[in-house]
Amino acid sequence: GAGVSQSPSNKVTEKGKDVELRCDPISGHTALYWYRQSLGQGLEFLIYFQGNSAPDKSGLPSDRFSAERTGGSVSTLTIQRTQQEDSAVYLCASTAGGDPYEQYFGPGTRLTVT
Amino acid sequence: AQSVTQLGSHVSVSEGALVLLRCNYSSSVPPYLFWYVQYPNQGLQLLLKYTSAATLVKGINGFEAEFKKSETSFHLTKPSAHMSDAAEYFCAVSSGSARQLTFGSGTQLTVLP
User: Residue A66: left (phi > 0), alpha (psi -120 to 50), or beta?
Assistant: First the structure.
């Protein structure tokens, strides 16, 4: 079956611009996570959705970062006024309700801020 | 708060040799532990997981890991390395109601012919 998909696969943007990253989880998966993978910081948790609600936003690095999820499915991570330190691979993962700890990851979006 | 330490950012083994990747965790509650593999320019693929059942866990591609509570370890092993095992490996912990994964810094495995 289809796995987690993310778009775009690569995004190059100029410093100060806004970007939107999209995640399509596995159909029927109720929980969705965003992580960031960068050279200096490794893999970091950003935000978690259960359905359309985000009970844990503790990993968002600044108020320039926001995310939403609609229809219990697609999620969008938005970064406003991008900075060079935002350059990273942004990974999305989803889990089924019966096994909340086994996360299935998408291929990621590589963001480069110039 | 939970944390994960992976000893050795780079490990090299010869093809056919034993693979041993080390992971130690810190968690205030019984943990769920995972090993993920990442091939170049790809996402993370689950190798295996420990969720308080058997302490010796078998995963895909011939990998296994043993949960040792007394040593707070969850080392990953494979009896015989294959060239296709070359990748980056991440140990992760998820405990309590936190749900999110806390990852180690990763170990890059190189398999030499």
Answer: beta
